[in-house]
Specification:
Layout (H helix, E strand, L loop, with lengths): L1 E4 L14 H26 L3 E8 L5 E8 L4 E11 L12 H19 L7 E11 L6 E6 L4
Parallel strand pairs: 4-5
Antiparallel strand pairs: 1-6, 2-3, 3-4, 5-6
Length: 149
């Protein structure tokens, strides 16, 4: 599923940073957060409820979004990848087999942590959302793969 959304990236002062690498790292984090914000908005419009943002499972790592659809009784773990342009390929290609394996362990940890509180059994799904900002005044491109792995 591909959707187009017109958004502009926020610009903030970077004068406190010392090196080009520090500036690039901050810009990359901002781009990622902006992509997550767009993905949240897009997924809410599809009827999902955001259960957790950037949930961390200790040393296992972090999942960008945990969604739930109570009507379908499904809990969705979403990895969001954001790119500026197409030079480095599709953002969807950046979800490596190692990251996929990590997401399975993170999902298992999360489900174990909430089972005590919740009697309802939900199916589990892994999705990937790719956001590409093609540049200029062109809208962001959203690619959403359900059951990605």
């Amino acid at each position: 599923m591909v959707a187009l959304i017109q958004q502009t990236l926020p610009v903030a002062p970077l004068e406190l940073l010392q090196t080009p690498r520090q500036i690039r790292d901050v810009q990359t984090k901002r781009l990622g957060k902006w992509g997550e914000t767009i993905a949240c908005s897009y997924l809410r419009r599809l009827g999902y409820v955001i259960e957790k943002l950037n949930w961390r499972a200790g040393r296992l790592g972090e999942v960008d979004l945990i969604l739930v659809n109570h009507n379908e009784k499904v809990r969705v773990f979403v990895e969001v990848k954001t790119r500026r342009g197409f030079r480095n390929g599709s953002p969807l290609e950046a979800v490596t087999p190692m990251k996929q394996k990590s997401l399975y362990y993170i999902a298992e940890s999360y489900i174990q942590s909430i089972e005590v509180q919740n009697d309802a059994v939900y199916a589990v799904r892994m999705d990937v959302v790719g956001i590409t900002f093609p540049g200029g005044n062109r809208p962001a491109i959203i690619e959403h793969i359900q059951n990605a792995f």
